[in-house]
Amino acid sequence: MLNKISKIKYINSPLIKFRKVFLIIFLLAISIGIIFLFKDTLFVLFNKIPTVPDFTKEISLSNVQKIITSEPLIKKEDASESQLTAIGVFYWTNYYREKNGKAPLKQSVILNASATLKAKDMFAQQYFEHTSPTGEDAGYWVNKEGYEFIIIGENLALGNFQNDEALVNGWMASPGHKANILNPSYTEIGIAVIKATYQGKETWMAVQHFGRPLSDCSMPDETLKNRVIGYDAELNNLKNQLLELQKILKSKNKMTKEEYNKKVDQYNAILLEYNSIYDAVKVLADTYNEQVQQFNNCIK
């Protein structure tokens, strides 16, 4: 019977161990040498300087605000008896809105005040128009009362209407006034009805001020924008340093390898700082722009 031959065991001699260690050291030295020799190419990986994000989405309230009016309504024939109330006009206005599938309006103390100012001014200056002889329109009166708005509307009526229902019916029979009453963009209303002398005759003037306050839409956080603007000087300073170092590195004039590599280290350190700030700024800018987009969608 043949006996099994056992495996041959190799003995690690000191010479073999030395060769392994030498090979490892040799390969490591080559790697370091390659990095040292080609270190000047490293800055190429970082030579693209990102641009600070611009605020491409802006809001301008002067372009947002809308004022809607229609030819003032004049009742040519007086009723034998005439009595108007603001609460009655409010009731019948919402009656027709709900009848036509529109949300009812809320009473606004501020718009009540602006409508009252308008009515009193028309009697005081003896005019019956949306714009006064001195140039004040509906926007002037609501702004005077501190009403910040997205959209406002104004309906005017002059004459001795029998009652509140008859007055609102008169507006509803006029396409422009009806459109104001049923406008789905409005959320609030202010009303004034005043009886005084106009052109030598005792008569009623009625004013409706419709509105949607600016507070209905969340304004973008301006502190975000200000923080980005605050980073401008710092980023521009770093960018100028990077551009100057780029020129030096690309020229390679009168520099030893040690000097060159030192500049590369300096460049990469500054760029890492720049990119870190840039990333933070971009997050702030993106957040702000998203808020602007939401605001713009809200005011449409």
Please characterize this protein's 3D structure:
This protein has 300 residues and is an alpha/beta fold. The chain has 2 domains: 61-216, CAP (Pathogenesis-related Protein p14a); 218-299. It is 52% helix and 14% strand. The protein is built from 9 helices and 6 strands; from the N terminus they run ααββαβααβααββαα. The protein has helices at residues 14-37, 61-64, 86-99, 109-125, 138-144, 164-172, 175-182, 222-251, 257-299; strands at residues 66-69, 73-74, 106-107, 149-158, 188-198, 201-213. Strands 1, 2, 3, 4, 5 and 6 form a 6-stranded mixed beta sheet that branches. β5 and β6 form a beta hairpin. It is rod-shaped, with a radius of gyration of 39 Å. The model is unreliable at 1-13 and 38-47 (pLDDT under 50).
Poorly predicted regions: 1-13, 38-47
Q: How many angstroms does the end-to-end distance come to?
A: 100 Å
CATH superfamily of the largest domain: CAP
> Which word captures the global form?
rod-shaped
Largest sheet: 6 strands, mixed
Mean pLDDT: 82
C-alpha-based Rg, rounded: 39 Å
